[in-house]
Amino acid sequence: MSDTPEPRHLLIVSGGRDLPDRARDAWPGLRTTVICRPEVVPRLRSREKIQRLIVLREDAPVDEWVAAARFVNAVDPVDRLTNFTEKDTEKTAAIGLDLGLSWHTPDTVAAVADKYEMRRVLAAAGVDDVTAETVHDAEGIIKVAEKTGYPLICKPVRGVASKGVTRIDGPDDIERALEWGATGAGDLDSAALLVEPYLKGDEYSVESVSEDGEHLVVGITRKISERDHFVEVGHVVPAPLPDADEESIRTVVGDMLRALGVQQGVTHTEVIVAADAVHIVETHLRPAGDEIPELWARVRGVDMIGLVARQAVGLKVLDEVRAALAEPGEGPRAAAIWYACPDAVGEIVEVSGEEEARALEGVVDVEVLMEVGKRLKGVTGSFARGAHVCAVGATPDEALRRAQEGVRKLSFTVRSDGMAARHEALTASG
């Protein structure tokens, strides 16, 4: 009897970079169909391995996406459904419901995508009761301030990548916050903004994997963000935490995932440990960005991107994750990433210092994200960062120090108003 699994057909909504290839590697003979927006097509890898590709306009109604999936299922029955991105998740959930395929439910997707809905669901479940309101103008923000006082946080209800997030310390900041929020909400499904109290405390992200409703925390990551718009400039794994705080974080995140109805998949959750409690900031039905999965793979041997691909084809993963976490390992004990965020506006004409950064002890990766010819617009969001350096060490502090030393070697020469000036890469947060 052959050990080769029977061929399956995986319907992928949106793209997923190398994840379709990883899924095919995890299940030999896997057939794949992709339904996506036009802008995704150039980014699809290994298109020659896709059985069929259906492209729909971004504004095509959900019913049209469902009809396309029905057509695919009629000509080649679909066994599995997935979406490796944060785009078109509500369409994926509708397809799953219509075809009877396992994926996140429409209610789960709605609560995760809409930050106000998430707050409502968590409050109703007794998990977290942070006051939050959707607003469209200054009057709405003032009403929230009358209830909670300042400072406040203002961000797009369906925001991503820290775009449009700002802190409001008083009435004079409101118009600026509305303008900044509009820049983050401009290409999203909703122009509404969420306003809630500013939660003072240490920030962490929690990387988890769920299987059949069971939730396992892989690790807790320390987050470091710049003050004004909370753009993340660094991450450290594992987060140095007192045992009591770590246990509280694990408990709250498990309660949150159950309240939101998450059953399967890798999730990335952001929390703040305040004086009174652990508060949820937001969660995502995907692995972390910012190379965080790669940092955890280095120190714990868990490939969270690989887990996503394996779960997409129906394989169980929790036992292998537990086994990897139980192994003491012989590699580095800690890892960190630090971002170069030159606070400049203009065209990049030169980036220097890459080789010097790579030569430093403990540095394992240097990547320039904004190359010559690109325009810097200041620290407007995660996609505006200039470069990053990853490093490993015996302790979290050593790994972070090495990554920061690497970034100090980098500099950007930027032309603005006809004049070129050299800018240090390290932000004031460093």
Structure overview:
32% of the residues lie in helices and 28% in strands. The chain is built from 13 helices and 20 strands. It has helices spanning 19-26, 62-75, 89-99, 106-113, 115-124, 138-148, 174-185, 243-260, 292-300, 304-312, 318-326, 354-358, 396-408, and strands at residues 9-13, 31-36, 52-55, 80-82, 133-135, 152-156, 166-168, 193-197, 202-211, 214-225, 232-237, 265-273, 278-284, 334-340, 345-352, 363-368, 375-377, 387-393, 411-416, 419-424. Strands 13-12-9-10-11-14-18-16 form an eight-stranded antiparallel β-sheet. A four-stranded parallel β-sheet has the order 3-2-1-4. β1 (9-13), α1 and β2 (31-36) form a beta-alpha-beta unit. The protein is globular.
Instruction: Let me know the largest β-sheet.
Output: 8 strands, antiparallel
Strand content: 25-35%
Mean pLDDT value: 89
Rg (CA only): 22 Å
Which class do the helix and strand fractions yield?
Answer: alpha+beta
Shape: globular
As laid out across the biggest beta sheet, the strand order is: 13-12-9-10-11-14-18-16
Number of helices: 13
Helix content: 25-40%
Q: Which residue ranges are poorly predicted, with pLDDT under 50 across at least 5 consecutive positions?
A: 184-189, 426-430
Q: Between the first and last Cα atoms, what is the distance in angstroms? A: 59 Å
Layout of helices and strands, plus pairs?
Elements: E1 9-13, H1 19-26, E2 31-36, E3 52-55, H2 62-75, E4 80-82, H3 89-99, H4 106-113, H5 115-124, E5 133-135, H6 138-148, E6 152-156, E7 166-168, H7 174-185, E8 193-197, E9 202-211, E10 214-225, E11 232-237, H8 243-260, E12 265-273, E13 278-284, H9 292-300, H10 304-312, H11 318-326, E14 334-340, E15 345-352, H12 354-358, E16 363-368, E17 375-377, E18 387-393, H13 396-408, E19 411-416, E20 419-424
Parallel strand pairs: 1-2, 1-4, 2-3
Antiparallel strand pairs: 5-8, 6-7, 6-8, 9-10, 9-12, 10-11, 11-14, 12-13, 14-18, 15-17, 15-19, 16-18, 19-20
Helix pairs in contact: 1-10, 2-3, 3-4, 4-5
